[in-house]
Write a structure and sequence with these properties.
- The protein is mainly alpha-helical and 163 residues long.
- It has one domain.
- The protein contains six helices and no strands.
- GO terms for molecular function: transmembrane transporter activity.
């Protein structure tokens, strides 16, 4: 990572820990399976959960660094003032989508908590797995907003230099 790249430290650490845990759980399961002809019961449930955490934490980090896959042709061709409008539209569309995920993910988490639903594999409360969806989507919204502010400032500075 370059020194100038914006960072999302908590999300970076969360993603790294989730990836490490997935690797250790999977490796441990493979070793146990081949040495004892049995396997750990928790590996699939935890691995899927950790993969979701890894995905959303990585998305928050990519949002902060403005590193998501995108087509920059339009951004590069627009003058700075219109680029500001495009940045605002990109941010607004992303926030609307993520806010819907936060809302409905929060409702689903609350329902699972209220119904005392348990996971089929290990019997843990499912809300423990689901609460991360709205929380990490809020993190993505925060990182998108930070990115919007940074990109807008850079665009305004570019606009001043052209004048």
């Amino acid at each position: 990572m370059s020194r100038s790249a914006p960072d999302a430290g908590p999300e970076r650490w969360l993603a790294a820990l989730a990836l490490l845990a997935i690797c250790l759980i999977s490796l441990g399961n493979v070793v146990v399976r081949y040495t004892t002809d049995a396997s750990f019961a928790f590996t699939e449930e935890f691995s899927v959960f950790l993969l979701v955490v890894l995905t959303f934490a990585g998305a928050a980090l990519a949002s902060r660094r403005h590193a998501h896959i995108r087509i920059e042709l339009l951004e590069d061709k627009l003058p700075p003032r219109l680029r500001l409008v495009l940045y605002g539209l990109q941010w607004a569309a992303s926030v609307v989508l993520l806010a819907l995920i936060v809302w409905y993910g929060g409702l689903l988490t609350y329902e699972e908590y209220s119904w005392e639903s348990l996971s089929p594999g290990l019997g843990y409360p499912t809300w423990i797995y689901l609460i991360w969806l709205p929380v990490l989507c809020l993190a993505i919204i925060w990182r998108l907003t930070q990115s919007l502010v940074a990109r807008s400032r850079a665009c305004l500075q570019e606009s001043r230099h052209e004048s």
